[in-house]
Structure formats: structure tokens, C-alpha cells
Amino acid sequence: MTTARASVDRVAIEAHRILDSMSTSVLIVDKHHTVCFMNAAAEALFGVSRNQARGRRLRELVADATTLSAIIDRAIEAWRPYSRRELALRPIYAEDELVVDCTVAPFEDGTVQDCVIVEMSDATQHRRISRETALLTQIGGSRLMIRQLAHEIKNPLGGLRGAAQLLARELRDAELREYTSIIISEADRLVTLVDSLLGPGHAPRKELINIHEPLQHVYHLLAADAPGVTIERDYDPSLPPIRVDRNLIVQAMLNLGRNALQAIAQAHETGGRLILRTRALTNVSIGTRAHRVVASIQFEDNGPGVPEELRDTLFYPLITGRSDGTGLGLAIAQELVARHDGLIEFDSRPGRTVFTILLPFNASDTSETA
Q1: pLDDT tens for residues 67-126?
Q2: Cα–Cα nearest to 336, from 311, 306, 315
Q3: Are residues 250 and 352 in the same domain?
Q4: Spatial contact of 296 and 357, defined as CB atoms under 8 Å apart
Q5: For position 288, which CATH number holds?
Q6: What is the pLDDT of residue 322?
Q7: Hey, is 362 helix, strand or coil?
Q8: For labelling alongside 369, which of 48, 68, 168, 253 has CA 20 to 30 A away?
Q9: CATH code (residue 30)
Q10: For residue 357, what are the domain limits?
Q11: Which helix H or strand E contains 35, and what residues bound it?
Q12: Which of 122, 138, 169 is the last residue before a domain boundary?
């Protein structure tokens, strides 16, 4: 009997060791949604140790456990497995919202009745790749729209301006010439608008710089634009220099910063906050290219968030959620970052929107700084 008991204990220990070696998060939860067990991967996912989690309800670990709890109830009631793809979770003890693929299966171990095994695999990366592919597709679509805009708008504007100049020479009445001046100035304004969308025609003039230098310049410009907004800086001083075109990157950063300030103004008369954050990320893919290290420059605001209906087309030209917006700022910023083989991503919910510029470090650049 002692030998049999020891054998059972060894099996239990081995089972725990196997579960802890898995990359999939595994929890055992009873019918009251109380956590009985979690493996090492689940500890990392929820940001809490198994000893802290054991005996606690899911609602104490997840900000909104309604959907997950409903799946558990359904699995116990039908006594069969249920799966859910891309389930959004907001662990209370972890920093970010998670997206997981989840399977809940009934389980009975002889000591606790009506339990389920909850398996979760982090789908955040898969979702990020899907969104990244969509963003890269938008860049291609934006460039096509830019060419069409240039053809359909810029050339006729040149003819319109020239005709207004000829007409002005024939008019002797100063009041009438004032009207032609308006036509000429408005034509020039539209040409400038189209030129800003097209961006500079030359290839980026890259130089090795500390990314915080242009970001600090943008910080001062934004602080002057919105004195009532608190602008915080959370810089990683360990970032090595990066090879970029300073002017282009300043313009991209400025567009994101001003877009954030305008969003804050919609939601806050006072209490608006913008955070400028830099980090180094490792093993990041942008499109089909894998990068060992990339610079992450974030603009986080506490505005109302990106409207749901705009999220899939946000970086297209002329797409805007503001009545006074041109819909060019984000499109231009994405194009300028794309010229550096980078990408702008965003994550948004009411009260927290983060736009992230990802800029790859060239291997030869980082070796130069070693």
C-alpha cells in the first residue's frame, strides 16, 4: 500500500513537472470558478503565482471574467469541451490586455467534483501579425490613392492657377483682382496639401542619431501646442543610436503627437495626459522581415479611443473622425516610417490609445556603437 501511494505521488509530481514545462497555460477550475491549479505558463500569463491564485475566483484574477465563466458553465452543464478563439482577457495583475485561444474541458480527479481544465494559448502574436499584414496592405493602398490624387488634383490645379493669373492681368478693378488672388492662394494651398501627402520625393537621408534627440524636439513642440496637457517622458536610455532621416522621423512623430493631442482635447477639458515612451524590442517581425532588435517609440494618450468604424482604414488618406481633420496626418506618418522599413501600429480602447512606431536597428549600426 505504501509502495502504491508513493507511486501515485511520483506520478502526480511528474504530471506537475510536465504541465510546468508546457508553453500552453493550464488551469483547473471548479464549478464555482475557483482556481484549484495553474501551471507555470498560466502564472506568467496572469501575472500571479499559483499559490496566490489557488482558492481565488476568476473574477479576482481577470477584470471581466464574464465570457470565460460562461464557457466554463457551459462545459460543465453539457459535460463536453468547448473552445473559443481570440478571447479577450484583461488580467488584473498583468500590464496588458491579452487575446487567447481557449479550450475548456470537463475534468474530475476524484477529490473535487465538476471541475474543468482550461487551456489557453496566447493569440496576441497571431493577432498582431494579422493586423500588421493589414497595415502593410494599407500602405500599398495609400500609395495607390496618392498617385491617383496627384493625377486627378494637382495637374488641374496648375491649370486653374495659371488661368487665374492670366485673368488677373486683364482686370483693372482692384476688387475683382482680389477674387483672383483668392483663387490663386486656394490653388496653392491645395497643391501644398497634395505635396504634403506625397511627401519628399528623395530617398531618406539617413544618419546615425540618438532617437531621443528628435523625440525631445517633438516633446517641446507638443508642450507649446497644448499647455494644459500633461506630457510625460518615459525613455529607455540604453537604446543605441539608430540610422534614420531625422527630418522625416520628426514629421512622423509630430503627426502622431498632434493627433494624440487632438484626441485628448475631444475628451478632456482638464486632466489630459500624453506619454512619450521608448523601448528596445527583440525578435520582432515587420512584414516578412525578422529583426533582432527594433526601437519602439510610443505615444499613449487618455483620449476617447479610435472609433470602431475607422480602425480598419485608419491609415488611408482622407480618413478622419474629426469634422475639421484632413485625414492626412496618420497616412503621411505611416508612409514616412515605411521608408525606414518600419511600421506604425496602434492599440486603442476608451481612455487608453497607444500608437507605436517600430524602427529596425540595422545590424551594422548597432555594431558600430558597441
Answers
A1: 899 999 999 999 999 998 888 888 888 766 778 888 999 987 655 567 899 998 877 656
A2: 315
A3: yes
A4: yes
A5: 3.30.565.10
A6: 57
A7: coil
A8: 253
A9: 3.30.450.20
A10: 207-368
A11: strand 35-38
A12: 122
pLDDT in tens, 331-356: 888 888 988 989 898 888 888 899 99
User: Into how many domains does the chain fold?
Assistant: 3
The pLDDT of residue 4 is above 70: no
Residue 178 shares a structural domain with residue 215: no
State whether 116 and 240 are in the same domain. no
21-24 long-range CB contacts below 8 Å, 24 or more apart? 23/121, 24/119, 24/120, 24/121
Q: Return all residues near 35 (Cβ < 8 A) that are at least 6 apart.
A: 27, 28, 29, 53, 54, 55, 56, 57, 58, 61
Asked if residues 161 and 187 have their Cβ atoms less than 8 Å apart, the reply is yes
**Same domain for 107 and 193:** no
If 0-12 CB within 10 Å is exposed, 13-18 middle and 19+ buried, where does residue 21 land?
A: exposed
Residue ranges in the chain assigned as alpha helix (H) = 2-21, 40-46, 50-53, 66-78, 124-149, 155-170, 174-198, 212-225, 246-267, 329-338, 363-368
Domain boundary (171, 198, 225) is at 198
CA dist., res. 81 & res. 75, Å (int): 6
Please state the φ and ψ torsions of residue 114, each to the nearest 5 degrees.
50, 60
Q: Which range has the worst mean pLDDT, 20-34, 121-135, 154-168, 335-349? A: 121-135
42 and 185 belong to one structural domain: no
Please give the grid coordinates belonging to residue 148: 491617383
Element (H, E) at 348: strand 343-349
Residues 73, 173 within the same domain: no
Q: Indicate if the pLDDT at residue 8 is higher than 60.
A: no
pTM of the model: 0.58
Please provide the DSSP assignment of 103-160 as one string: EEEEE--SSSSSEEEEEEEE-HHHHHHHHHHHHHHHHHHHHHHHHHHIIIIIHHHHHH
Distance from CA of residue 176 to its chain's centroid?
52
